[in-house]
Amino acid sequence: MSAFLLLLLAPLFTGSLKWLKARLQNRQGPDPLYDYKNLLKLWRKVWIRPQGSSPLFLLAPVVGLLSTGLAAVFLPLLPGISFAGDFLVLIYLLNLGRFLQVLAALDTGSAFGGQGSYRESLVSVLAEPGSVLALGAVGLASGSLSLAAFSPLSPQNALVYTLVLVALTLALLAEGARMPVDDPTTHLELTMIHEAQLLDHSGPLLALYELSAGMKILVYIGLIALLLPFGGLSFPAALLLAWLALGYLETYGVKLRYLRLPDLMSYNTLSGILAVLGVVLRFRI
Asked: ω before 180 within 30° of 0 (cis)?
């Protein structure tokens, strides 16, 4: 199933991405398999529960990984579940994990957890409408609202699909906490978004969060792959392009100021709206 495939690939993708960025900076960098070793190390450690926190603190990482895995099941990379409107279930399963992660960070009562939760919630609100509109536009253009029936890019739908790819790419950067939305390597707490919520987590709990974050990136890459006209090679091609693009972007790019994120993510929503309008107007003509 797609969930097991992404579960196995997620540490390889994030670990090799760190290796690529190190090589672009003329450093040796970690082994591409480093994230597998890091997850195993975290799993062997003892987790610490902050004083005064509720069982939600322990439940959130587990539900986060399970919801991301269930979302991956809907990707037609391998035989899985398919029905009309399943892309909506996929989006909301991803956001269920985020919702509980935000609650768990608030549950600790720490200042940085509250700050990260607020910022993460804003990013989610900015990214979700464009993603839903973009996938809805593809469903309308394909004549089916099921991910398994989405038609790939062709000369007839090139403009609409270009807008959809823009929206999904921006959503990947926002949902995956990558540059220029967030800096996954920062050590400055005041600039953190995603990582600020994880400062109180350790051991297996942190490992679950790291694994679900990597899987979420691959889910969005899988959505982009559905639109590529390469048949069975679409997902490997999208994976390679995303790997190279993220490596170069996070090496030579800069993180946007937090107050500028709405400006960036407005292009996500605008692209989704224009994609839907393009499909509707084409049908009416």
From this structure: yes
Residues 278 and 160 sit within 8 Å (Cβ to Cβ)? yes
Q: For the chain, which residues make up each domain, given as ranges?
A: 2-280
Predicted model pTM = 0.95
* Those residues with Cβ within 8 angstroms of residue 113's Cβ, 6 or more apart along the chain or in another chain: 105, 106, 196, 197, 199, 200
* Cβ-contact 147, 93 below 8 angstroms: no
pLDDT tens digits, residue range 161-218? 999 999 999 999 999 999 999 988 887 767 888 888 998 999 999 999 999 999 999 9
CA 193 to CA 243: how far, in whole Å? 22
| Residue 146 backbone dihedrals phi, psi, to 5 degrees | -100, 135
pLDDT digits (tens, 9 = 90+) for 101-148: 999 999 999 888 898 999 999 999 999 999 999 999 999 999 888 998
DSSP collapsed to 3 states, the chain: CHHHHHHHHHHHHHHHHHHHHHHHCCCCCCCCCHHHHHHHHHHHCCCCCCCCCCCHHHHHHHHHHHHHHHHHHCCCCCCCCCCCCHHHHHHHHHHHHHHHHHHHHHHCCCHHHHHHHHHHHHHHHHHHHHHHHHHHHHHHHHCCCCHHHCCCCCHHHHHHHHHHHHHHHHHHHHHCCCCCCCCCCCCCHHHCCCHHHHCCCCHHHHHHHHHHHHHHHHHHHHHHHCCCCCHHHHHHHHHHHHHHHHHHHHHHCCCCCHHHHHHHHHHHHHHHHHHHHHHHHHHHC
